[in-house]
């Protein structure tokens, strides 16, 4: 796979994840709405990493840390509100978490929060697409 094909791979799975977030919102699965937003943004950022850095994408889930690795190469500055969203989404990355942790985290997210995060994630997703060189 060449670099554009690798970006396309990351983009396609990111698009699937943001669409899944929408579907989960309709079902009222608030924690998983936010988790899928996190996944979508992380994957799109990893696609940009491929374009700006190389195809050896770090196996990390901290979106801010990923963006910081190529921020200086971007055509525009990443604003503080974008980094705030990245940090918020990173908190909701779920990986082999204990059920008690997921339950506690899930209790923090209700429809209003999930709605705001979904809207911000969609806006940021569109904005990230504009950063493609």
Keywords, separated by commas or semicolons:
133 residues, mainly alpha, Four Helix Bundle (Hemerythrin (Met), subunit A), globular
Give a nutshell description of this structure:
The protein is mostly helical. The protein has helices at residues 3-27, 30-52, 63-68, 80-91, 99-107, 111-129. It has one domain (3-129): Four Helix Bundle (Hemerythrin (Met), subunit A) (Up-down Bundle).
Shape, principal axes of CA atoms: globular
CATH class: Mainly Alpha
* The number of domains: 1
CATH fold description: Four Helix Bundle (Hemerythrin (Met), subunit A)
**Beta-strand residue percentage:** under 5%
Total strand count, please? 0
pLDDT averaged residue by residue = 92
Helix fraction by DSSP (H/I, runs of at least 4): over 70%
Distance between the termini: 18 Å
Secondary-structure class: mainly alpha
Descriptive report:
- This protein is globular.
- 32% of the residues are buried.
- It has a single domain (3-129), classed as Nucleotidyltransferases  domain 2 (Four Helix Bundle (Hemerythrin (Met), subunit A), Up-down Bundle), CATH 1.20.120.330.
- The chain has helices at 3-27, 30-52, 63-68, 80-91, 99-107, 111-129.
- The chain contains 6 helices and no strands.
Q: What is the secondary structure topology, with strand pairs?
A:
Layout: H1 3-27, H2 30-52, H3 63-68, H4 80-91, H5 99-107, H6 111-129
